[in-house]
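Exercise: predict the fold of this chain.
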Amino acid sequence: MRTYHDQTRHGVADHSLLRPFRAMDPATRPAPFKRYVGRSPAPLPVDVGHSDVPAVAVLSGANTAAEPELDDRLLARLLHLTAGVTRVSSSPSGSNWFRASMSAGNLHPVEVYVVCGDVGGVPAGVHHFDPREFGLTPLREGDARASLAAAVADPDLARAPAGLVLTGIPWRTAWKYGERGLRHLYWDAGAMLANLLAVAGAAGLPARVLTAFVDHEVGHLVGVEPPEEVPLAVVALGAPRGQADEPAAAAGAGAAHLPALRLPVEPPPAQPLEFPLLVEAQAAGNLHEAGDVVRWREVAAGGTVGVDAPTRIEPPAGAPDDPMETVVLRRGSTRMMRHETVPAPALTWGMAAASRHVPGDFVAPGRSLVEHGLSVHAVDGVRPGAYRWRGSGLELLEPGELRDQAAHLCLDQPLGGDSAYTAFHLTELGALLSSLGDRGYRSAQLESGIVAGRLALAAFALGLGATGLTFYDDEVSSFFATTAAGLLVTSVGVPAYRPTPGGGPGDPAVLRSFDRLMVRLSSRLRK
């Protein structure tokens, strides 16, 4: 994985192992949605309801209502606000669909599968979520939760109401980003999980992120095969129900005994390219049997890597009380920002909320694999300069006006410097790989996506804007005088325009001025 990381750094000369290709070739553009031939999705409820808990309380980790029954209405809410289509625009080249979570290049390479018992009107089985039609395409009949539980070596999952499997289609993002697209798979999945954890938390529904599992068994269960599509993460939805009176049955017999799914999928417009280094890097982190999963998880729980991360924080005083669902639909990737000062909580509370401990199996309780450097430009009461975030406060590294430097670090993208502050999410790569191996690299990239997604939600909860950015890897580490490697960047600030809120299931908001915004952005980038 070290070779993969080094070869996919921006701003270095040696890319000798990367495959030459024409990025964003219109003739090879991948399809934006996965559709099964001869199988129609069963519609999900479009009246999905909402919570009454303020988004700032949810993002602070506050306890909400008692756990609800997971029915088809709540499941539909979770799916729509995690992966659903919320906006659409038209252009001469066709329609552009925008979804509830952030995605680099609006490419959305992550698919969602539901493995559940009977959930309201959704029958027990394995289903694929179709975000465009807003429905579930049945893939397997019957309760397969025990098989999923065996693949993740977690018997409790067999008694949870449902599990979600997130998979990635590498070509859908490599079409633009090449081998670096593997990073984007985990960033995008993390951004989706930030939404999912927030919406589930608002409803009072427990959710756990599982990054350790037997890869080929999870893939077999949902009918995907590498390198075309690979499993990224599993999420347990809801607390276990009932008693595990028969441990062997609760653990399941694994997915390998299930018949292979031979379900034809609509072919892509053109043959996807394969990137050998990407394929090798993904395969290098695979776990091959349940014992490997248990051992990796035990090391991760030992807490030998990472930094301290609180579970709960205090919400900001006087903040808006919009519910989580409203904030998710308001959120979009802010494409232009004004040089305006933001209140201090936008930084102090926003970073604390974003960097809270993630409920999952890849890090010890109260810990995080991700640390943060900040370039602060216009925050009330905070001196401009470079800072290190220390879990609950700021450590000044270098004072000064750093807008130009921050923009340069972000691959010379103006948003890196136009922001009120820009957060650089990093990890100590040497310690990470030494402790958690190649699987740990995946987990750190995934957690950075969760952090960036949470920070964006926190910004929009306070009426601001945010966007994710890429960066010059080595220059970021040098700027913050650290051995930690860059993972992802989030800029937070005041939008230069009023974003259009997203729409509900099956009713995306129409972006009528999107092309004009892109012209303004293009003009800004040429300056």
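Check your answer against the key: The chain has 17 helices and 19 strands.
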